[in-house]
Amino acid sequence: MQLPVRLNPLIRLSAAACALVLVVGAAESSADRSAGATARAWGIKVIVPGQPAVGTRALSAPDDAVSFDGAFAYPATDGSIVAATSVTTSVSASSGVQASAAASSQVTAVSLFKGEITAATTTGEAHALASTASASGDTGVTGLATLVVLGQPVVPTANQQIPLADWGYAIALEQKSQRVDKPTPGYHDFVTALDVFLTADHGGLPSGSEIQIGYAEANAQASEPAPLPTAPSTPTITLGKPGRAPGESGPIGPPLLKKPPNVTPELTAGRYVFPVYGNSSFIDTFGAARSDVSGGWHHGDDIFGPLGAPLLAVADGTVFSVGWNRVGGWRLWLRDNQGNEFYYAHLSAYSPLAVNGAIVHAGDVLGFLGDSGDAQGTPYHLHFEVHPVGLLGLGYDGAVNPTSYLQAWERLKDVRFDAIAGWTPASHLGSAPKAGAILLQSSDISTASGLDPESITRALSSKTEGYGGPLVPQAQQPSAKPVITTP
Questions:
Q1: Tens-digit pLDDT profile for residues 113-168
Q2: CB distance 275 to 332 below 8 Å
Q3: Contact call for residues 218 and 101 (beta carbons, < 8 A)
Q4: Which three-class secondary structure state does DSSP give residue 189?
């Protein structure tokens, strides 16, 4: 049910247009529009005329960063203006002739003005991609779950203005994008999941105040053609500084814990599955002493298996922070529909589903087991962590022992990955006919000649590709993001 609109349509549209011009102008003027890539995100920001803005941590890229914030309240004494249970933000940016940027912010259980406006989950997400040939972008999974305004449920649409009695208005799923073609293609995208403007004093805030919830901005513009870089810049790593996974750069959060948390909260987002497909083994190594940048103790379990073993999404959810860091190597994060988060590290390659903002289902293939990062030279394994939503406020030290979860989750040994959709279990394909065959291996013999019998032997002895693509160790230098594609 949508709220009835009580303003004159012309007045309403004019007010909305003015608000969008003001917000878009501020976003664009502050973004770096030169060739390259930038990203910004924050969960909550309260802007009061004549006062410094207050809110949750704001992230910007480059460099890639992820932050986990716990409960937020403004004022801090009672949260009567804004209150939320947790905030998660992430940003990434990569410049060059292939430029990309991504920003994401998620706020759970947000309440404004003592419940006059509520939402179970508020998510803002923006992506931008640019090459020397084209540019594009999108707003990912931006949305408002269970939005209620002045006692009435609202199903929001993009840039929808919602009147707030006689004291203001809100813009739901506020978004704006702009594409440029000169000197090189570029794309700029921003979104605010919920933007509240006060036209009169209300709830302790003066007229002219603004509350932004779920802000994300991405800007990418291709550089002039030039040799590709051999590696990204080395991440900023500081021993004993929390608020980041090993090798992650970004704002510093609460102090590191001397000991890991001794709790295993129930995860209730739905069906969970074991993260490694096929034969594997693991033991409980959570909390073991470490002398590297992981903060002094092991934040997860290592699951050992063969090189290239498919790595599965443990739950329905959203993929984010896909990319490289020095310690985790090729890594990614998965956030389930309850807000719990899971960390996968040391991958050898990604599947096409491993894209920031991708919506995946339990059992989908996200990547492949390897030894990238600081695991080079060790037996192939997946470093796997569990970060329950209730402990995200502890930053990276919100990890809990994954052993009991891993022991309880179903091992998908009977899953069939059909050739028609090799990254998704057959159970997700509905009643579609099953493929008659699965491509397990292929060799390119196009160089062979029928006039030269030995040429076939030479072609077959060349590099052979395995299931879904080349299951071979990836270079340990991140000169290119390894993505396995179907033959």
A1: 999 999 999 999 999 988 888 889 998 889 999 999 999 999 999 999 999 999 99
A2: no
A3: yes
A4: strand
What tokens does 388 get? 């329950």
Higher pLDDT, 144 or 327: 144
For 230, other C-beta atoms within 10 Å of its C-beta total 10
Give yes or no for residue 481 having a pLDDT over 70: no
In this structure, the strands spanning 82-84 and 117-131 are unpaired
User: Which neighbouring-strand residues pair with 187?
Assistant: 179, 220
User: Is the pLDDT confidence value at 286 over 70?
Assistant: yes
For the chain, the residue count is: 487
Distance CA 356, CA 129 (A): 12
Q: Please provide residue 223's backbone torsions phi and psi, each rounded to the nearest 5 degrees.
A: -80, 165
Cα separation, 411 vs 457, in Å, equals 40
N- to C-terminal Cα separation, the chain: 48
Nearest Cα neighbor of 126 from 89, 87, 155, 73 is 89
> For residues 243 and 253, what is the distance between their CA atoms, to the nearest angstrom?
4
Burial code (b: 16+ CB inside 10 Å, e: under 16) for 338-349 equals: bbbbbbbbbbbb
Residues 71-89 have pLDDT tens digits of 999 999 999 999 999 999 9
For residues 229 and 244, give the distance between their C-alpha atoms in angstroms, rounded to a whole number: 25
pTM above 0.90, yes or no: no
- b/e 441-453 (16+ beta carbons within 10 angstroms → b): eeeeeeebeeeee
What stretch of H or E contains 11?
helix 9-30
